[in-house]
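Table S2 (text version). Query chain:
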Amino acid sequence: MRWVKKGLIFQPPRNLSWMTTHAAVPCARKLDGNLYRVYFGGRDEHNRSQVGYFEICLDQPYETRSISREPVLYLGELGTFDDRGVMPSWTVDHDGRTYLYYIGWNLGVTVPFYNSVGLATSEDGGKTFHRFSQGPILGRDPHDPFFTGSCCVLVEGALWRMWYLSCSRWEKTDSRPKHYYHIRYAESRDGIDWDRTGTACIDFKSSEEYAISRPCVINDADTYKMWYSHRGESYRIGYAESEDGIRWKRRDEEAGIDVSTSGWDSEMIEYPFVFDHKGERYMLYNGNGYGKTGIGLAVLSEG
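Corresponding structure-token output:
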């Protein structure tokens, strides 16, 4: 597997009040033909994320067709799980609705922050979204006592399958508490109520690794393939395979993409979103600064 980088396709315009920096965690939804809408999290002057989008044609990816002038998903109400930030994670089109699974942010006291998975739905093809509820659909519980985060959702027949970030512990350090999170699995019959087991799908491979996030799963015939971010010193994109979507084998050396020697993605590379279009496989991803430098595009090479 070898990904050919096509370069930086979107940078935060910095002239919108809701987005002065960052375009993080890209998530693409096909509209028509070669046209795609890419959702992302932009930060305001107070470092709070909200969800917006831009649109591109894959045959002209360096030309932004449109951009949302206002967020499509705002901050939650004071005291709710997402009152400090919202970031997109995954979209599912089902029964005439678009489901947006998103990451909600809270500030903490004994620890810096908490995350949860929220759900918003759209009746107009993803132009506007409304919260399913003021509470998360995947928050802290006996299986995930610390926090949950970025997720991928596939619908296979009557079964909804989710791979999601779960914090396994916080560790005290001299400066501030350090989080450890990996990828776990859940199932649902309606995309709203989820059954969890606490079993890790993608776990840490060394004592230096402490963050595994943003899973992206594709079912290729008899093989499930997952791309994700993993971090020790800095983020890289990893890869794993599975026969059943639950038991996975990490093959990070086969990911086929790494940091560049210079430029916008030379320090880190993370938050992959992989999708197929007209016989080709594409990847959207972030580079330096967790999305501060923008969003890039890569295409899987056959050679």
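Notes on Table S2: The longest strand covers residues 159-171. The mean pLDDT is 96.
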